[in-house]
Amino acid sequence: MMVASVGAHAEQKAFDIVYKGFYALHADEFQPDASLTVSIVVDDLDGNGAYSKDELWELTASNIHYTNGACNYLSCIDYFNWTPGQLPNYSARFQRQDLFNYTLTGIVTGVAYREFYSDGGGFSSSQTWEWTPATQTSIIPTSPVPEPSGYAMLGVGLAALAALGRRRHGVSA
Q1: Are 61 and 107 in contact, with CB atoms under 8 Å apart?
Q2: Helix (H, G, I), strand (E, B) or coil at 158
Q3: 12-28 confidence digits (pLDDT tens)
Q4: DSSP at 55
Q5: Which of 157, 113, 139, 128 is nearest to 5 (CA)?
Q6: 3-state secondary structure of 166
Q7: Which residue of 22, 39, 52, 56 sits 20 to 30 Å from the alpha carbon of 81, by its own alpha carbon?
Q8: Under a CB-based contact definition with an 8 Å cutoff, are residues 114 and 126 in contact?
Q9: pLDDT tens per residue across span 78-113
Q10: In whole angstroms, what is the distance from residue 135 CA to residue 35 CA?
């Protein structure tokens, strides 16, 4: 009974989304080898086969490191929805500013990926890659890294199986 309850937790799934081939606005040319990899971890909590912003646990791309469903002062997800078999739809951003530097990274799928940097000395850099009909998307399932609680549940399940095995062995002897 205990083993069954341990396995009842919803399953997180991890994916790498690789976009390849962008129009580089900053270079005024299509770059077929330009790529962007976005790693996500999702969990279909409502069981409808699709993922919403509430079911997105992690999103990592360039400077963007969104974790556990909450925007922080650096990284945020404005919207996210994805039904497997279709292309993910989301907007993600990273912004950091101090007395001397300003960094902004933004992704709006199907539109553009942008990185901007400026320092207090007058240097700035801006690169923008736009999606085109030639942009290819690959979605690759990966294995999420288990959280410590996952290892704890595994340990409880293994201990329960060992106890059950010892009990059965003692009864048959």
Answers
A1: yes
A2: helix
A3: 999 999 999 999 999 99
A4: G
A5: 157
A6: helix
A7: 22
A8: yes
A9: 999 999 999 999 999 998 888 888 899 999 999 999
A10: 9
